[in-house]
Description:
Layout: E1 2-8, E2 21-26, E3 34-39, H1 50-63, E4 70-73, E5 78-85, E6 90-93, H2 96-106, H3 114-117
Amino acid sequence: MRLTVYVPKLAALSTIQPGAGIIGSQAVDHPGKLLIDYEDSRPDTQHLRFADRVLHAADRHLTGYPTASRLFADPDDLLVVGTFDRYTGMVQVSNSEALEAWLAEAHNGTIPDLDTETHTTVAPDVDR
């Protein structure tokens, strides 16, 4: 299963911390909006790769697990940067420039290696 991966456009969705993994889909009950789930890049999760944060957001998105890290967003506030394959744990990047800029914000301006950041450190649990 492939899920769409997003980053916010400049100055949009300021409640989401730079480097967060964001997954979204069309909101059924809110036409014209996206329902997004995200996993912020917090100090206690700095060791996690971007793909790990995307995996956490994807699990919540697919299960509907209650979380404060879910919101409705205007599609114009987000950029698609790729897709996430839950079975391989990989982010297939379609907009590397936007993803690198998003991750650099979380790494004090340093652009991390996308080949590393787009693979999870743990095997996804595909039985869910």
